[in-house]
Design goal:
Elements lengths: L3 E7 L6 E8 L1 E5 L2 H7 L3 E7 L2 E4 L4 E4 L5 E6 L5 E6 L5 E4 L10 E6 L15 E3 L1 H9 L2
Parallel strand pairs: 3-10, 10-11
Antiparallel strand pairs: 1-2, 2-5, 3-4, 4-9, 6-7, 7-8, 8-9
């Protein structure tokens, strides 16, 4: 059984449609301050690699959120569409945008040391602190 599937989805208003060829089945939660500020809570997202295409690209606006990442959203409805790593154009897409979610498994959390105390997930997950996250990605 493959660790990835093909995924289709859209923003809230349908002005932007997403087609991703390598959607991970693993859902991760990011608790960093930017993700929480962006969406009002943790970002529940899927790694989708580079092979992602969009219909309605003229409705996408991109915000340069850090030295290494940028965030895309729909200009019409404001839906969060992606976090994209600048260096390799790797897409991380909110899980809720995908039409078919039956294969998804919530199994990891990053920036766990930045998670506020007012919420907790009961799932058993692999957890990574901010320092562990940066160490992992700085060596690649």
């Amino acid at each position: 059984m493959s660790d990835t599937i093909k995924g289709k989805g859209s923003c809230l208003c349908g002005a932007v449609r997403i087609n991703a060829k390598n959607v991970s089945k693993n859902v991760g939660a990011c608790h960093c301050g930017m993700c929480r500020k962006w969406g009002g809570g943790p970002m529940m997202a899927i790694s989708c690699g580079k092979d992602v295409s969009f219909e309605g690209e003229d409705n996408i606006s991109v915000y340069d959120s850090s030295d290494w990442g940028e965030r895309g959203f729909c200009k019409k409805c404001g839906s969060h569409l992606f976090f994209r790593l600048k260096e390799n154009q790797h897409y991380i897409i909110p899980a809720g945008l995908f039409e078919d979610q039956e294969f998804f498994v919530f199994d990891n959390q990053v920036f766990i040391d930045k998670k506020p105390a007012f919420y907790t997930f009961k799932n058993e997950t692999t957890n990574m602190t901010e320092a562990e996250f940066y160490k992992m990605y700085s060596s690649s």
